[in-house]
Amino acid sequence: MDKPDPTHHTKTREKKESLSREERQKQLEFQHEAVVHLNALYNYALHLTMNPSDAEDLVQETYLKAYRFFNSFERGTNCKAWLFKILKNNYINRFRKNSKEPGKVDYDLIKDFYHSIKDSRIDTTEADSDYFHSLLHEEVYQALHSLPEEFREVIQLCDIEGFTYEEIANMVESPIGTVRSRLYRGRKLLRQQLEGYAKKYGFNTDNI
Amino acid sequence: MNCKKAGVLISASVDGELTLIEEQEFLLHLSECKECSVEFDEAKKTKMIIREKIIRFKAPQALIMSVMQLTSFSTKEHEDTLLYE
Ligand SMILES: [Zn+2]
After folding, report:
1. End of a domain among A38, A66, A99?
2. Centroid of ligand 1 to alpha carbon of A197 (angstroms)
3. Which long-range contacts (CB under 8 A, 24 or more apart) does B38-44 make?
4. For testing the chain A interface, which of B42, B44, B50, B66 should be mutated: the one with the most A CBs within 10 Å?
5. Distance CA A98, CA A138 (A)
6. What is this structure's pTM?
């Protein structure tokens, strides 16, 4: 019979501990790089699904997948953009397939949505008195959501999330030139919508 | 550069996404054209209004906890195996 190797046990231990250290390293990096974008991801998910519990599921799924594939994340690139892309793919696979027709906006749903989460909202200061500042959160939201999805999406990613054209192009899988022209056209439409609301309040926007 | 061409560039200029040459020509036109300057300021304002008026929500505490758990589960499991081995 073989004599048991006295070093065997310690060797396994060392191997296990170093594996664990590696895993811990990965976790630290993941929390530092990825988990810090939790609020932004939740917001994006909320605007896509319009439903807090679906949004939570989507974010969880995204982080689970992101952690599993964290090794494929190209270090030094924008992690937030990487996460957004994963979230969007998840959303398309899971929700959009069986959703209602695209382009139709249910304004009552938006209203309910805004009212139901009003308490957790962060108010901005409204010092200025020009027509833009008279607009309600809800109206800007409605105006944004009245745009065709391809326009709304790029405006959201650019203006709200602050991504570069290159990052957005990668996310929506279109050339940078397309992103640029969608933003141009989308903003034109959006401006008309916003001015429509402003007129409602009696602001004369003709000279602006 | 004429007003028509400058008008098309306003959107990308607000985002700081013009090429160097485009930007030089665009700024030159702005310095000579009042109308396009006003348009440019309006475009900046529209971008700002979207950023300000669209409400940002904080992720619920339960979600934060569960995401933290997702990423610490495997190590914990690993540590447990080490401990009870
Ligand atoms: Zn001009």
Report:
1. A99
2. 27
3. B38/A208, B39/B7, B39/B10, B40/B10, B40/B13, B40/B14, B42/A191, B42/A208, B43/A187, B43/B10, B43/B11, B43/B13, B43/B14, B44/B14
4. B50
5. 27
6. 0.77
Q: How does the average pLDDT of chain A come out, rounded? A: 79
Report the residue of chain B nearest A178, measured CA to CA.
B12
A residues 89-108 lying closer than 8 A (beta carbon) to B: none
Neighbours of A45 (CB within 10 A): 29
CA distance A38 to A87: 11
ipTM of model: 0.82
Quote the number of domains for chain A: 2
Round to whole Å and give the CA distance between A44 and A81. Answer: 12
Tell me which residue of A35, A60, A98, A147 sits closest to B46, measured CA to CA: A147
Question: Which sequence spans correspond to the domains of chain B?
Answer: 3-53, 56-85
Same domain, A83 and A114: no
Output phi, psi for B78, to 5 deg: -65, -40
What CATH code is carried by the domain that includes residue A140?
A: 1.10.10.10
For A84, other C-beta atoms within 10 Å of its C-beta total 24
In this prediction, residue A24 carries a pLDDT of 83
Q: Note down the domain range covering A201.
A: 105-208
Do A95 and A145 sit in the same domain of this protein?
no
Closest partner CB to B71 (pick from A30, A41, A158): A30
> Is pLDDT above 50 for A128?
no
Q: Tell whether B34 is within 8 A of chain A (Cβ).
A: no
Work out the average pLDDT over A50-66. Answer: 92
Q: Do B46 and A59 touch (CB under 8 A)?
A: no
Chain A residues within an 8 Å CB radius of B51: 159-160
